[in-house]
Design goal:
Blueprint: H1 2-19, E1 32-33, E2 42-48, E3 72-77, H2 79-88, E4 96-105, E5 116-128, E6 137-143, E7 149-150, H3 158-166, H4 178-187
Antiparallel strand pairs: 1-7, 2-3, 3-4, 4-5, 5-6
Helix pairs in contact: 2-4
Length: about 200
Amino acid sequence: MKYLLAIVAVAFGTVAYAQQPATPQYTSAGELIRPNDFREWVFVTSGLGMTYNQPAAQPTSGAVAPVRTPNFTNVYVNPASYRAFMKTGQWPDQTMFILEIRASTSEGSINKGGHFQTNLVVVEASVKDEARFPGKWAYFDFGRDMKTQVAALPRTERCYACHADNAAVDNTFVQFYPTLLEVATKMGTVKAATAAPTGH
């Protein structure tokens, strides 16, 4: 009987966990709580060495500029918002993205070329909450130390203008998410002049 009760308790706990909504949660002070299970969300894409700034000019003295080791950027989105996007090509209210940035290296184990991911650099988030944030979206920096809760970045931070001006779909860089770009293109929700060129 005790064994049966234990099985029921474990099963109930599993169902309860599965039913927990993966939506933005806040403290009483309005700080965003970092979801512990974001790596179990929908993985959207990964970039390598991406930057939205112009590369530094090479020195004119003939010296070779130091090569910067590229970082990986892993993007996750909460499952409910992903499912909604796949149907409509738009992000619903309460959408939450997590950006996990990791360092890279090319030397290790049997690897002889390319890069693979290593140490955590920083974790960031973007949230669409129309009732809470002016402009609907806000951006958060949990840092390298994975803070459990943080306030939204000030609207003077350049990420707000960058996303508003350059993002393909509703303040998100769908132009860099190939499977989602196909959906948005089909649904006609891609902002003109933002689509990334396709490879050959």
